[in-house]
Amino acid sequence: GLDWQNRDGYLASLKSRYRYDLRREVLPWADAFEVTAGPPADMDQAYALYQRVHARGRRMNVFALPRNVFAAMANSPRFDVLTFTLPGADAPSAVMLSHRGGEQYTALLVGFDEDLVATHAVYKVALFRTVERARELGAERVNMAYTAELVKKKIGARPQKTAAFVMLDDLFGAGVLQNL
């Protein structure tokens, strides 16, 4: 829920275990990044961050968005883009693309510098600041998408069962995959 007014209210809305984790793992770095909203100043660097995270993702097998689609999303008024940069850094540390849809704010794509995960909790900070941004924009609900359930639970997400259905019009490929 986004019915809190400030960070203290946000923290109070979490279970005590997750509140402890957030204070220990995320809050020390939450304000270490300069966060800018709007299309990234350097689209190539933002897209490169996204590509690196996509390339490591093994939990969900989806195709990488082409650069022109990524750029179109980043420049669309229907999407909110947050860019995270450490002060004095030449390049962004993370980028989060989220869809704004009335009452719902959906975090869709993330890219981040893997070297900063251990030292600056960049992924957790990006998720945390995305929730704050959704509240700032007046959303009533945040959809955090798929994967990384534990990390997202620590920032207040509640997992929901999801089902997907596929209709194949060519069974040859499915047969080949089944026999691998």
Summarize the structure.
With about 180 residues, the protein is an alpha+beta fold.
List the helices and strands and how they pair.
Blueprint: H1 7-12, H2 16-25, H3 27-30, E1 34-37, H4 43-56, H5 67-75, E2 79-85, E3 94-101, E4 104-112, H6 115-120, H7 122-136, E5 141-143, H8 149-154, H9 171-178
Parallel strand pairs: 4-5
Antiparallel strand pairs: 1-2, 2-3, 3-4
What is the typical, i.e. mean, pLDDT? Answer: 85
Beta-strand segment tally:
5
Which structural class best describes the helix and strand composition? alpha+beta
Percentage of helical residues?
40-55%
List SSEs in N-to-C order.
Answer: HHHEHHEEEHHEHH
* Rg over alpha carbons: 18 Å
For the largest sheet, list the strands in their spatial order: 1-2-3-4-5
The helix tally amounts to 9
Characterize the biggest β-sheet: 5 strands, mixed
